Amino acid sequence: MAPTMRIELDRQDKVFYGGDVIRGTLHVSTREAITCRGIRVRLMGKGYCHWVEGSGDNKQHYIGRKTYQELSTTVFGNFYKTSLLDNAGEDARFGNMPGDGDLYIPCDGPGGPPKLIVRAMDYDWGKKDDLLGEIVLDVPALVAKGDTETFPLFRNRKQEKKAKIAIRASVSPTPNAPKPYLARVEIIEATGLRKADWFGKNDVYVQAYEPPEGAVLKNGDKCPEPEKRAYLEPGQYQYPFSLPVRADAPGSFESNGRGPEAWVRWDIYANVDLAFWMDPSTRMPINVLHTLPLPKPELLVPVKEEMPEEAAFGCSCFCIKLFNKGTLGMDLTVGRLAYAPGEAVSFTGHIINNTSEKATFRITLSRRQRLRDTTGPKQNTTSQSWSLHVATVAPGASIEGDLLNGAEARVPSDAHPSFFGIDSQEALQGNKRNKKDPVTWTYDLEVRFHIGKMGSELKSNFSFLVTAAPPYAEALPPAGTSPVVMGVPSAAGSVVPTLPPADPWAMQGAAVTTPGPCATAPTIGRGFGVPVVAYGTVVNVQDAGGEDKATVCVEPLQPVMGVWNAPIPAAAPTTAGAIELAATMDAGLDKIEALDTWCFHNRGAAASFTPDDVALVMSKVVFSMEQTGAAKTLASHMGQCTCAHVAAAVGACSFSKFDVTAAMAPWITDKRNKETVLSQLGAFDRTRAEMFF
């Protein structure tokens, strides 16, 4: 009888943000003994789209896929492996997805496991994988060095001519875990690999395992094969696990079944590794909320469009104008061009209906979705619309001031924050294996004032940004600020910002789309206490396209979204400091949530932190998986930081020096002083960190 498996997360709502650490327990119950390769838990985030063009013999299917994160951990057994790099060829470089080269190995001592056999492998479907090279790794020595080291690879008792592997290792305490320490072995790259396939390129992954007890091995010896026969006695077992979400994780997205299928989904998958076609497995969908984009200042000013009165006709189509009914006029001001889900959009101005018929005033928000085929240049564009407001204006009547007459036009809860993709960012970082995002989306706002179904109309379109968080109240212009008039360029030397072009996709240039400083709005996290509401229909992911049909998913996915009622109020004066924050973090298990909550309720306090304060706060984050997310959270609340601040954080996080540098680098204001930070990194990591400055 197959074992039963159940995933239980510490967060009952299953809602996470970029940079969070997912904690949970895998429950396994078996009535019979099991011999397996191991038991694993995996975090997966991926995007997908599918559409069809043509019909009959000319029907063409187009599919887009992209994996945003794939990170697994072995909770039972002595066999660990990285993500698979498809078509990596002779040079396999990890890091295209955060965590794709990480191996997390529980251990009993601060030096890590004494020895590990590390092997670069070529995956072959349906037959035994090919060995590309192996080494015997002295983990304590590598941990003590504190830097990335490159080793030659061996095969058949001979050193490969060109094959090398670069590895870094660290060991950190693991509170509330079966073993007191956790070794993180990071595979940076495996280069100069032999060609193992007759056709195509190597599909590379790296495996690691501890050698048999008592074995005396050195590099050049033929290493024993991994023991893939872990024995599990009948009984009930609980396996705690922790998995970090990438800091810039794209949020969950569902197209709600309207038109072609498109989504971004995250889930936790667990399996007993027997053979890939018969593994007992389970899957739990989770929601990752958006933390980007955020608005730049030019999107927070009121925007005005003036349309003088013009003749209105009962029939106005195909350049034919019949039955003059009078005139229509519209003078419209939108409060700003960037709002978060749940916020009420402001419309003021003057509309006048000087016709003999009633006129309709209509406001519509539309999402423009761009779908892209992974393997070719083919694209498809779809749309979804929400009616925000509809009103009737009687003949000869007008509305002045608040054009909504006291009603509200709120951004819908299922209007996901705009997403322009992260493929361009990955390409800039030199990731040659980067894939196009299968689905991206943006918005526009349409205001129509018309008579009849075929009559004249006045129409205004605004490019619109749906943000992950509303602006700070103090970032908004004062009441009575003169609006920017569409179509009228700002005068030379004017402080009035220039509007983005009238193209929804051009809003990317007016938005903060990568982690970094933003003076107008916060980078949200769990500590903000954002109300989360369900939207749309429950999705049975087991039946959806692009999903693994063989994996049991015991519960459906209920999409949720964080919603806001208004801008974030101005910060109250505070005298709280780093000592109080450190005490708060000591009292909480989730250090990132404790840090985020305290900084949100003591807004502005983190901005005055000294490097010593930063070192004190980061010293409270002893679990290496949390250090990157905590560093990003602290930097975002500080608003900006110096190289001295980053150096202090790096000094307090000996297990994650490079990752902490990468997380805080976007907020650095004095990059000329980079040596303060780089001097704390080893030679290999120093070279990689140079790109942040």
UniProtKB/TrEMBL annotation:
<dbReference type="InterPro" id="IPR035892">
    <property type="entry name" value="C2_domain_sf"/>
</dbReference>
<dbReference type="InterPro" id="IPR011021">
    <property type="entry name" value="Arrestin-like_N"/>
</dbReference>
<dbReference type="InterPro" id="IPR014752">
    <property type="entry name" value="Arrestin-like_C"/>
</dbReference>
<dbReference type="InterPro" id="IPR028011">
    <property type="entry name" value="DUF4476"/>
</dbReference>
<dbReference type="GO" id="GO:0005737">
    <property type="term" value="C:cytoplasm"/>
</dbReference>
<protein>
    <recommendedName>
        <fullName>Arrestin C-terminal-like domain-containing protein</fullName>
    </recommendedName>
</protein>
<dbReference type="InterPro" id="IPR014756">
    <property type="entry name" value="Ig_E-set"/>
</dbReference>
<dbReference type="InterPro" id="IPR011022">
    <property type="entry name" value="Arrestin_C-like"/>
</dbReference>
<feature type="domain" description="Arrestin C-terminal-like">
    <location>
        <begin position="324"/>
        <end position="471"/>
    </location>
</feature>
<dbReference type="InterPro" id="IPR050357">
    <property type="entry name" value="Arrestin_domain-protein"/>
</dbReference>
<dbReference type="GO" id="GO:0015031">
    <property type="term" value="P:protein transport"/>
</dbReference>
<dbReference type="Pfam" id="PF14771">
    <property type="entry name" value="DUF4476"/>
</dbReference>
<dbReference type="Pfam" id="PF00339">
    <property type="entry name" value="Arrestin_N"/>
</dbReference>
